[in-house]
Amino acid sequence: MKVILLCPPKVFASALTGVIDIFNVANQVMGRQFFSWKIAALSKELQVVSSQGLTIQCDSMLGELKGYDVLVWVGAQYSSDATLWQQCKEVNQALSEVSDTLKTCRYHLAGCCGVAYLGATGLLDQHKITASWWLAPFFAKYFPHIDFKADETVLRSNEVYTAGAAHSYLHLILTFVCDRVGKEVAEQVASWLAIPQKSSSQNQFIRLSVLQDHSDEQIRAVQSLIDNNLAEALSLKRLAEFAYMSERTLIRRFKLHVGMTPMDYVRLVRLEKSRHLLASSNLSQAQIAYQVGYQDPQALARQFKKHFQMSMKAFRD
């Protein structure tokens, strides 16, 4: 199976080399060269400098590679939404001249910012996808038509595989290896490379401070209201009235700037506060539930386990 590793300027080097490591070890486990690969540059300049200042020697230009099965979209390091959008346009412009290469690749694998590049080509329009959780506002703004699932770590939609933040490539490529050559090979690769078991959700990595870092003052005010009044009833109607806007407008602007609905944000803040109280206090689970706005402690316990992939008791222990 012939694989292209797309290497954009300021590539995240560990993601590029890590993909190669997994394919290489898979070949060793199978005792044959099932996967072969080429590192492809977008331009005639075959030496690409990574975001860490390392020089990557590409094998060829993307347009020179024909008859390949897989295209791995390796992302550059994120700096801002504006920069990422500019990178998307530059990548898409470069790819417009090599459309034949894109058409011949059956499988597309992308992680982190690489998912945004793939989205700019239009190849994700009919798929459910994921990327880094903090890219949810970016996709809501620039690709509102794409079905983005921020909580997934790896998501397969037909022949398109997408994954979260940079090091999710480990499970992105392992999932692909499992699908192509079997679970036993993938498990052996994971053992040899000491790759931990995949988390089924990115929720445990979400940081509220990142979700509050945007330019919409009205939405930030609503977030402050939520943060400071968790024990109270926080309905969509109350939040909309506080912001002097319709419920529909509040939902739209929340998704644009925060990447989720207002009520999803309320649930997230309550869960994060619960985690903080478990770690920093001796309050019982029932007391914590009441402090963060749950009238039923068991309802909080169920939501906590679903979100963080462990029970409240296990977290505190």
Quick one: CATH class of the largest domain?
Answer: Alpha Beta
Number of strands: 11
Strand share of the residues?
A: 5-15%
How many alpha or pi helices?
15
Describe the sheet with the most strands: 7 strands, mixed
The H/E string reads EHEEEEEHHEHEHEEEHHHHHHHHHH
- Give the % helix: 40-55%
Can you tell me about this structure?
The protein is an alpha/beta fold. It has two domains: 2-203, 3-Layer(aba) Sandwich (Rossmann fold); 206-316, Arc Repressor Mutant, subunit A, CATH 1.10.10.60. It contains 15 helices and eleven strands. The protein has a seven-stranded mixed β-sheet with strand order 5-2-1-6-7-11-10, with helices on both faces. A two-stranded antiparallel ribbon has the order 3-4. Helix 6 runs antiparallel to helix 7 (183-192). It starts with a strand and ends with a helix. The mean pLDDT is 92.
What topology emerges from the helices and strands here?
Elements: E1 2-7, H1 13-30, E2 36-41, E3 47-49, E4 55-57, E5 60-61, E6 70-73, H2 81-95, H3 99-104, E7 107-111, H4 113-120, E8 128-129, H5 136-142, E9 147-148, E10 154-157, E11 160-163, H6 169-181, H7 183-192, H8 208-211, H9 217-228, H10 236-243, H11 247-258, H12 262-280, H13 285-291, H14 297-308, H15 312-316
Parallel strand pairs: 1-2, 1-6, 2-5, 6-7, 7-11, 8-9
Antiparallel strand pairs: 3-4, 10-11
What does this entry show, briefly?
The protein has 317 residues and is α/β, with parallel strands linked by helices. The chain is 49% helix and 13% strand. The protein has a 7-stranded mixed beta sheet with strand order 5-2-1-6-7-11-10, sandwiched between helices. It has a two-stranded antiparallel ribbon with strand order 3-4. Strands 8-9 form a two-stranded parallel sheet.
